[in-house]
Amino acid sequence: MTHARVFDPRGRVLITHSRVCDRRWRVLITHSRVFDRRPRVLITHARVSNPRR
Q: How many domains is the chain partitioned into structurally?
C-alpha cells in the first residue's frame, strides 16, 4: 500500500494513490493562475472492476 499524504501549511491535504496498486482515487492537481498560485485539488472517484490488479 503506497499512500502519499502531503500536508500544506495552508491546511490542505493532497492524497495520491498509485495507479499500480489501486486506481480508486484520481487526484488532479492544477494551479489556478487567476486568483493566485494556489494548488487546486480535484478528487474524482473512478469505478474500477478490479480494485487490486
A: 1
Per-residue pLDDT reduced to its tens digit, 1-52? 455 555 555 545 555 544 444 445 455 544 444 444 555 555 444 444 444 5
Number of residues that make up the chain: 53
> How many Å apart are CA 4 and CA 28, to the nearest integer?
14
Cell of 19: 495507479
Expressed in angstroms, the distance from the first to the final Cα of the chain is 13
The residue assigned the cell 480494485 is 51
Domain-embedded: residue 51: no
